[in-house]
């Protein structure tokens, strides 16, 4: 299978932490697709889009070189590749389309628990194992610390115990891996999430239109995830107080309730989390039949 120039080319991680969330997002945007088993390229049936399944490390470069139009990758790997390419004098441009709401993590320096650590200057003359030598090097340089980095593609957390380094700089999400390996997090150097990036060169008009449409849909999916549809019955006397309690709901719909003179129905979209406490307060004000429903898509 080959990729065609008349179709939007998107690179996503083949298998890893970002794969399912990215495929899920694209499906919610209306792309008709199933995860292929061992295929590199997949043609989306209902839209002129081709998906390229690759390793996350390759995605930023494919976008910067214009081999694909768009890529979904962790910002950590995007920034690392950018710094690496800049250092080597290679093409390192891209356009950030959207910071996404998954793949959240941080790149942190961690030190063995039993070793004394006061401040970042304690790293002077030390060796750090990391998958991100450019981001780590830039941070240390910015802090005025002269330390050495050794690049490891995996199992970074075992490097100090294996005698390969004094400390590490690795991706942390819950902190469980550091703890399990007797390491303490001493400095966060970068906060990351998945991002959608676009190649720097101009796209053809049709392809750019498709990208714009996709971005509107991505925004709609992300907005819908944060929002909830609220329906409830409220006494007319408490209407204003109850409407004020609804989080981020601007213009609620107020409807008469059949067979009731003093109660109305309120329908509203809340753009923030609706907490149990809010619902309890509404109930205490005489509200009833309080429903909080998920929203699948939002437009406009
Ligand atoms: O095969 P391929 O090269 O595509 O994948 P990969 O193995 O290099 O990457 P993968 O799938 O592990 O991660 C892809 C992206 O997910 C990363 O570039 C980050 O942007 C993001 N991400 C989010 C994470 C984590 N959370 C994460 N916890 N990437 C890695 N980890 C690892 C970390 O390296 C460490 O080993 O999980 C461990 C720490 O997790 P906690 O929860 O114990 O702190
Ligand atoms: Zn990788």
Write up what this structure looks like.
It is built from eight helices and 15 strands. It is an alpha/beta fold and 300 residues long. The chain has three domains: 8-102 and 194-224, 3-Layer(aba) Sandwich (D-Maltodextrin-Binding Protein, domain 2); 105-192, D-Maltodextrin-Binding Protein, domain 2 (3-Layer(aba) Sandwich); 227-294, Alpha-Beta Plaits. The strands form three sheets. It has a six-stranded mixed beta sheet. A hairpin with a 5-residue loop joins strand 2 (41-43) and strand 3 (49-54). The chain is flat. The two termini are 37 Å apart. 30% of the residues are buried. Residues 55-57 line the site of zinc ion (ZN).
SSE diagram, text form:
Blueprint: E1 8-13, H1 19-28, E2 41-43, E3 49-54, H2 59-64, E4 70-74, H3 75-88, E5 95-99, E6 105-112, E7 127-130, H4 133-142, E8 148-151, E9 167-172, H5 176-180, E10 183-192, E11 194-198, H6 205-226, E12 228-235, H7 239-245, E13 253-256, E14 263-270, H8 276-284, E15 288-294
The protein binds phosphoribosyl ATP (PRT) and zinc ion.
Phosphoribosyl ATP binds at residues 13, 16-18, 55-57, 74, 76-77, 103, 105, 170-177, 192.
């Amino acid at each position: 299978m080959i990729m065609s120039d008349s179709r939007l080319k998107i690179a996503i991680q083949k298998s890893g932490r970002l794969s399912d969330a990215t495929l899920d997002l694209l499906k919610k945007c209306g792309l008709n697709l199933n995860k292929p088993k061992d295929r590199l390229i997949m043609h989306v049936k209902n839209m002129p889009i081709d998906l390229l399944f690759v390793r996350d490390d390759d995605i930023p470069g494919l976008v910067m070189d214009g081999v694909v139009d768009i890529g979904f990758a962790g910002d950590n790997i995007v920034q690392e590749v950018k710094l690496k390419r800049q250092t080597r004098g290679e093409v390192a441009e891209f356009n950030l389309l959207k910071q996404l709401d998954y793949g959240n993590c941080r790149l942190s320096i961690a030190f063995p628990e039993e070793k004394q650590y006061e401040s970042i200057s304690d790293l002077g003359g030390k060796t750090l194992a990391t998958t991100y030598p450019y981001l780590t090097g830039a941070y240390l340089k910015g802090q005025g610390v002269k330390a050495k980095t050794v690049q490891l593609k995996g199992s970074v957390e075992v490097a100090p115990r294996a005698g390969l380094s004094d400390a590490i700089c690795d991706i942390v999400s819950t902190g469980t891996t550091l703890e399990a390996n007797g390491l303490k997090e001493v400095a966060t150097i970068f906060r990351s999430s998945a991002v959608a990036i676009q190649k720097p060169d101009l796209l053809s008009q049709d392809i750019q239109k498709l990208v714009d449409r996709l971005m509107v849909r991505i925004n709609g999916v992300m907005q819908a995830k944060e929002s909830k549809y609220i329906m409830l019955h409220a006494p007319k006397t408490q209407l204003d107080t109850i409407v004020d309690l609804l989080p981020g709901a601007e213009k609620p719909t107020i409807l008469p309730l059949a067979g009731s003179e003093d109660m109305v129905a309120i329908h509203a979209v809340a753009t923030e989390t609706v907490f149990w406490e809010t619902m309890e307060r509404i109930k205490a004000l005489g509200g009833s039949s309080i429903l909080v429903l998920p929203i699948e898509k939002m437009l406009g």
